[in-house]
Amino acid sequence: MPPRIDDLAHEVLSPGDTGLPERAAGLTVAEFLETSPRLGEFWTPLTVLDADAMRRNAATIQAWAASKGMELMPHGKTTMAPALWNLQLEMGATGLTLATPGQVRTARSFGVSSIMLANALVAPSALAFIAGELADPDLSFRCWVDGVGTVEAMERGLAEALGAETALPRPIDVLVELGAPGGRTGARTLAEALELAERVAGSPVLRLVGVAGYEGSLGHDRSPAALAAVRAYLADLVALRDLLLDRGLLTPGGIAADDVIVSAGGSAYLDLVAEAFAPAIAADASAGRRTRWILRSGASLVHDHGFYRGISPLDDLLVPAMRGYARVVSHPEPGLALLDGGKRDLPYDEGLPVPLGIAPTLTGAATGDGARRLPEASVTALNDQHSFLRADDPAASLPVAVGEVVALGLSHPCTAFDKRRWLPVVEHAGSDLVVDLVRTFF
């Protein structure tokens, strides 16, 4: 029987669970939480989640997407935490997006029944797994293809996995992925995408259900050039849907009871996705035609103090729901302190941690705005296990003592969660009471 979310409360904690208090070893998660643990017991470095902020963010992005006529299938690879997936699904998400077959298998093990694999599926072993899962009539699964070679690899892999005597329970639903020159994956032109769609339509084991793509690889800021590139790409994505409809490659009869899918949207340009989709959504309504316009924003659940705070159009609505903590272990110069968290512990690929405040321990004010404010200071570099905290003014001293704890705003949730097996959760930013442990599956 597959595990359930509730089963995670019965997992036994061990000394190998980084950051947890020593006394947690040997207790189940539920037993440990019954003791009302406080953050001050946890070992630094540490990443902490805010339950109230996550609930607010999940409700906010869900309501925003619905107001634009879109569904939300958030990208589960951001957290790889079934408990947080469940929160998003309870808030109204119509499924999960995932990035690898292994992530799909994890989601299926927790009973997720609506999955989009935003990637190609070509490994014979993974195809065999999906073929078996398709026997479940409640499973709605679709993946992406971006070239004829991908289609051929899927057909070969399925033939290898199933053999001549076993039939696929039903075709695998696929979306044609549109890319752009200089971008990531995806057919590079509309002509290539059309050729691919025609090839899928002729496959005995695949079923064409829509188009998809990722606009986030075309820009990294909100410069006019980046916005223009994203807008042009999204216009092409909608045009591809229309082209496939005109050619009869996407018809209600061809995809049974399902609707045509158009999917885009990371967490950086979702306003441009809504802008590009809006005329087509209105036209569909006027024509009595239904298309599922699916947004995949994953980072919106926890937001951040760095990359997404700077680029997200919803920064005024979302609040950072994750925070790092690291302890001062060396103060070798007046303007320099070394913290005990580094690249192994904190995300750094989309910006370095941002110092928010300092407190002698992780209790009480250390989690909220009551933490003692730092003077002008920045994290300037990370080693594997150290952060360099420097005064912004080279002539200024840094009033921190060895043993004090620095609260850190983090950047890029997608590389924050993979650092820990269990992440403590406080009820809100002003609390030090740990109310949950979130289990990740990386």
TrEMBL record:
Residues 321-427 form the D-serine dehydratase-like domain. Coiled coil: none annotated. Keywords: Lyase. GO terms for molecular function: lyase activity. It comes from the Bacteria. InterPro entries: Ala_racemase_N, D-amino_acid_metab_enzyme, D-ser_dehydrat-like_dom, D-ser_dehydrat-like_sf, PLP-binding_barrel. Belongs to the DSD1 family. This is D-serine deaminase-like pyridoxal phosphate-dependent protein.
